[in-house]
Each structure stands twice: as structure tokens, then as C-alpha cells.
Design goal:
alpha/beta; Rossmann fold; 7 helices; 31% helix
Length: 240
Amino acid sequence: MIIINANFIQRITIDWNKIAEESYTRTIASLSGLTQLDFNHPVTFFAGENGSGKSTLLEAIAIKYGFNPEGGSRNYQFSTYDTHSELFNGMRVSGGAIRADWGYFLRAESFYNVATKELEYSDKKHPAENYHEKSHGESFLALAQKQFKPNGLYILDEPEAALSQQRQLALLSEIRQCVNAGSQFIIVSHSPILLGYPGAEILVFDDGEVHNCAYEETESYQITEMFINNKEQVLRNLFD
């Protein structure tokens, strides 16, 4: 049986000749040797330690696809403070013949700016969701329920940052419904709950390269399991 890859983003390639020699992205071990990455599943996670290059690569993919660097839908065009890298300058994004009907780029660290802009963009036909009037977690989940639609591309950077464990389970349900309706997700996450999405591909950025990893082999899972099963011993060793 031939499995057809219907992802909106199927492959990225990086031409390092188009990236400045002084770019800090060249010093990130997991990225410096990366020239091609394929996306074969509707849900792909980027996992790994802080500073390993996950968000840098995710951001470059989002920008190259046409999203605003600070987040939002492709209709959002604003800049509060430029922090994105030059990596997108050398990147090519390849996909199928059909582009996504909708999409959203969520960055936890700049969501406040996007929520503020959402108020400015609102009108009678597009009323504001008033994210600032909700708690951080409530606004994140409300955004997912509003913005996640069929045949969409969703690029999420640590969406669990404001979500309780129960809300993370609710987010998994939202993702599942969208995937069943033809959507694709690329997600940076440290959450052992989100990483447990069935059938997802997990790419880990540790050990100087981007590589596949089974769910039970991720540090997010192993450390959480170790702490839950051996809390007293872990804390004793940590504090001593």
C-alpha cells in the first residue's frame, strides 16, 4: 500500500551559503549540520534541552511559510521587537500542490503582543476574542478552539506554557480533531502529555544532531517518570 504524504510542509532544506558567516545559528550544534528535514506525519514534535535549536528552527519554518515572526495568522503583520534569526534566509520549504486553507503560528513568549494586536485588528465582521480578559491558560485554549480549523497548518512553540495538565489533555483533543480534518501540526514541546500524541514523530535536538526518538526515550518522559516513581530519592539526591 502506498501512503501519500498530504502534509502542507513535507520537507525543508537549508542552504548555509545564504546565511551570514557571523550568524549565531552556525554555533547551534543540532542545526549547523542540518541541510534537509522531512515531515512524514501530520503531527511532528521538536523536543530537547533548552538552547538546542528547536524554537530557532520552528521560527524559521513559520517565517518562510509566511507567518509573522511574533505569531498570529498569516494576516498578522507587525513587529514589536525583532528577535528572529537569519536562518529563514537560507531555507526552502517544500510541500504538496495544495496549500493550507488556514494556519496559525503560536509563540508562548510573544502571545501578549499578538493578543493586543488582535484587539486592533477586530471589527464588526471579526469581533475580538478579548484574550487579555482571560487567564493565560484560558486564552491559550480559547485561541486553539477558535483558530484550529480543518485543512490548516499550525506551528506551535511550547503551547503547554500556560496550560494545566487538564487543559493540555483538552489541547490534545483539539489537535486530534484537526488532524482528522486534514490539518498538520509542527510543535516544540517539553510536555510529556503533549509528546504522547499517538502516531506523532518526535525529533530530538540533543547530542549535536536532529534525530528521531521514541516517546518513552525522551527526557521529558523519563525524568517525569523518575520523579513520580522515586520522588523522595530524587529530591534527596538533588538537595544533598
